[in-house]
Amino acid sequence: MDKPINIAVDAMGGENSPQKVIKGIEIHHSKSINTFYNIFGNQNIIEPIISNTKIPKKCFKITHTEKLIKDSDSPLSAAKKGKDTSMWLSIESLKNEESDVIVSAGNTGALFVIAKLNLKMIEKIEKPALSALWPNKIGMNVVLDLGANIECNEKNLVDFSLMGAALHKALFENETSKVALLNIGSEEVKGNNIIKNTYQILNDKKNLLFDFKGYIEGNNIMDGDVNVIVTDGFTGNIALKTAEGTANFITSELKQALNSNLIGKISSLLNIKNLKKFKKKLDPRLYNGAILLGLDKPVIKSHGSTDEIGFANSLKVCEKIIKGKLIDKIKKNII
Q1: In CATH, which superfamily holds the domain spanning 126-293?
Q2: Residue 237 and residue 241: Cα distance in Å, rounded?
Q3: 104: part of which helix (H) or strand (E)?
Q4: What is the pTM of this model?
Q5: Residue 50 to residue 40: CA distance in whole angstroms
Q6: Which of 62-66, 270-274, 296-300 has the least mean pLDDT?
Q7: Minimal CA–CA distance to 10: which of 97, 165, 80, 114?
């Protein structure tokens, strides 16, 4: 049997933890083979929860600590709390090669700072990027950067293209990675100098990992013509929040319309199958698990407000990127 995948889990981060974290592990374990969970957190709280699950004792280890990082902590104050918090210890296990990947639903800024303090950058990559999955009409997009870097130069955007394509290939091995730069227009003359220079670099120097498809506008992100979308962290974060807000608005308005009168309720009953498909497509839990790319070890950020289903999906992302040899793909193709 192959060596098990060791996932370091910060059990104390995010809303309703560690309950949702342990339940998420149980869901993931039921669908996964040969996975071991290094769980970091308050053993006195975790043990009663995990004892009521179907997770075999041979599949996990609990490292006890009563210290945790709060969502209200600033990244600096979180780092100053020391090396005994569940987040720090889980990342340290990755640094010490006791785990292959780490996942936390805790404080995003703290996670990035502590990860950068403990882990090295991949050689030749200047800045890390935060990446996540977005649905499109025919499958899934990898989008980056979503907020790790407010300003980026041409080298950063070229690196993001390569890292995003490597992530896409690790997650979707049989698909061709198609990269596009998010811009205000599709013509070559559109955009600022940085994005135009990046276009020329990517267009002139072909990469075996991906096909470069030029520019993409915000209204075409969901079309499915490309599957890796690259931008700076300022623009990417605004695009992410806009997409999330739009999805929530559509879902809530549709729900209200279908429940407001008798005709709406009858219509919803007649279309229940299609409505379930629509709801599933927009369910953020299915795309949970943002990845901090650029470090020499994989760091996964689960949404703090997600439930056990969402956390289980972030564990699935952990498993896929280890099996897909994400870090090796980036190192092999970086220029």
Answers
A1: Isopropylmalate Dehydrogenase (3.40.718.10)
A2: 6
A3: strand 101-104
A4: 0.86
A5: 13
A6: 270-274
A7: 114
